[in-house]
Specification:
heterodimer; A: mainly alpha; 2 strands; 4% strand; B: alpha/beta; Amidase signature (AS) enzymes; 11-stranded mixed sheet; 39% helix; globular
């Protein structure tokens, strides 16, 4: 499988990244090199193999629903690039 | 060569502190002085905490003067990779996007070591967000290998390995997603351990690929490795993927010999791509293990060659999801010129992430995107099962598996910088272990072209004790761990 420049542009949009024309060319080329190498995986028949998302036999780890210490508002906002009235401030949305 | 304080291992330093031959303040001053003489060339550190470290050392000395017992790692100067959160101390992941981030909490490992009395001297350089094999992806500056400043220290925990190799820290912590502790340990001639997935809490470790990441010690010898692992291992309710499995007494494992131990030598790790001189050193090491009574036997891990392509789909897929949080809203860098939200996201991320990060985010986003998920991501997860089954079957027969850590010695800085695939190949022998979630250690086993070669020992899940046992027996019967780089000081 190979990826076209147009698809790279679409993936960039999904990932919230933007590239210049020249970068798009470069990423398309490098991604095709890498994906070409990934094609190796198709040498294996995996039709009867289960997927391993995670190696530990753990799922749905729950804890008691008890009150815990969390960051207070001021601390949570300390690293914010912009804030107002105890909230994160961002540029206009629409 | 005259003995120096910064040249000591943690357990040697501990003995001197205990016998009052040395104070924690003297130990810390010696390491800080060493850093001031080597750091301009090695560049292992991103943040130095000289004042804080001296203050901590003073507290330790006061405790000891008051007659309190000295704990194993108390008063020993150490450093953390800069992807582990430290409360009130800048934690950048060597990325422009987190250049000003000051965590409001400690990673569990930082908390545990602090409570154990460790003296934190600084935060260590790395590849941006732990993605890289040479440290050239640091957004700030690359680390240089203390054995040859023109060469890479390996990555992504290059700062962690170079600091220990140059005596700029007594021990450090790194993180290993596809070899990022073991490969730099191999390149810099030190000991590096990747514990079993779930052995050490990941709470406060800034995520790269959550199903693969694991924190591990980088040390000057195997005993130190056992000590540090013992201090950081264990279940943590703040990390739901940390395993509720008892922590062994790792130092105890060092007392056992390896007579009759069954060692598998996977033939796939000695094939194409392995440097001939590296191969010779590894085979010499295998011979040594046989001399010490181990039963070594060639065996096969047939899916080895598929681990690398599977990894470079899975790790970027997980990364693309983990790195979605860097959007300029809550912390880190923001492009202030954008007039609307979507543009702010795009410009912040495009300016804040380096080229390799963007490449992996793009690959991962593509592998997870509608229409390609089954062909790439799901396929890779199934291949991961096959890689893991290889190991499961092998460990029915063998106690440990022994192989090279990396296919070559440290390569030159710049040599692979423009060729991502050839860079990825340097992780060929470390990646299968992460896919299978197993523990593995790299220890020095000699020099080739004047550069260190690393021997990798891979074990059963939660059997770090067996790795340390084999590693210690090898180390105590060979001179390799005593070799140090001839780094000229200012």
């Amino acid at each position: 499988m190979s990826i076209s420049k147009k698809e790279v542009e679409h993936v960039a949009m999904l990932a919230r990244l933007e590239f210049s024309e020249q970068e798009l060319e470069e990423y398309t080329e490098k991604m095709n090199d890498i994906l070409g190498y990934m094609d190796k995986l198709n040498q294996l028949d995996t039709s009867k193999v289960a997927a391993t998302y995670h190696v530990l036999p753990i799922n749905n780890v729950l804890r008691e629903d008890k009150d815990r210490h969390y960051l207070d508002n001021e601390t949570a906002l300390k690293n914010a690039p912009d804030k107002k009235d105890g909230m994160f401030k961002v540029p206009r949305i629409v | 060569m005259a003995l120096t304080i910064h040249g000591l291992t943690a357990h040697e330093m501990h003995d001197k502190l205990k016998n009052k031959e040395l104070s924690a303040t003297e130990a810390t001053k010696s390491v800080l002085d060493r850093i001031s003489k080597t750091e301009s060339r090695v560049k292992a550190y991103l943040t130095l905490l000289s004042e804080e470290a001296l203050k901590k050392a003073e507290q330790v000395d006061k405790r000891l003067a008051a007659g309190e017992d000295l704990r194993p790692l108390e008063g020993i100067p150490m450093a953390l990779k800069d992807n582990m959160c430290t409360e009130g101390i800048k934690t950048t992941c060597a990325s422009k996007i987190l250049h000003n981030f000051i965590p409001p909490y400690n990673a569990t490992v930082a908390e545990k070591l602090e409570k154990a009395g460790a003296v934190l001297v600084g935060k260590l350089n790395m590849d941006e967000f732990a993605m890289g094999s040479s440290n050239e992806n640091s957004s700030f500056y690359p680390v240089h290998n203390p054995w040859d400043l023109e060469r890479a220290p390996g990555g992504s925990s290059g700062g962690s390995a170079a600091a220990v190799a140059s005596d700029g820290a007594i021990y450090t912590l790194g993180s290993d997603t596809g070899g990022s502790v073991r490969q730099p340990a191999s390149f810099c001639g030190v000991v590096g351990l990747k514990p079993t997935y779930g052995r050490v809490s990941r709470y406060g470790l800034i995520a790269y690929a959550s199903s693969l990441d694991q924190i591990g010690p980088v040390t000057k010898d195997v005993r130190d490795c056992a000590w540090v692992l013992g201090a950081i291992a264990g279940h943590d309710e703040k990390d739901s993927t940390s395993a509720n499995v008892p922590v062994s007494d790792y130092s105890h494992a060092l007392n056992k010999d390896i007579k009759g131990m069954k060692v598998g030598i996977p033939k796939e790790y000695f094939a194409e791509g392995l440097d001939e001189e590296v191969k010779a050193k590894i085979l010499e090491a295998v011979k040594k293990l046989e001399d010490l009574g181990a039963v070594c036997e060639e065996m096969s891990l047939p899916h080895t060659e598929y681990a690398l392509p599977a990894f470079y789909l899975l790790a970027p897929a997980e990364a693309s999801s983990n790195l979605a949080r860097y959007d300029g809203v809550r912390y880190g860098y923001r492009d202030k010129n954008a007039e609307d939200l979507i543009t702010m996201y795009k410009q912040t991320r495009s300016q804040g992430f380096g080229p390799e990060l963007k490449r992996r985010i793009m690959l991962g986003t593509y592998a997870l995107s509608s229409g390609y998920y089954d062909a790439y991501y799901l396929k890779a997860l199934k291949v991961r099962t096959l890689v893991k089954q290889d190991f499961d079957q092998a460990f029915e027969r063998y106690d440990v598996i022994v192989a090279p850590t990396a296919p070559t010695v440290a390569f030159r800085l710049g040599e692979k910088a423009d060729d991502p695939l050839s860079m990825y190949l340097s992780d060929l022998f470390t990646i299968p272990v992460n896919l299978a979630g197993l523990p593995a250690i790299s220890i020095p086993c000699g020099l080739s072209q004047g550069m260190p070669v690393g021997l990798q020992i891979i074990g059963k899940p939660f059997d770090e004790a067996a790795l340390l046992q084999v590693a210690y027996n090898f180390e105590q019967n060979t001179p390799h761990h005593k070799l140090k780089p001839q780094l000229e000081v200012e």
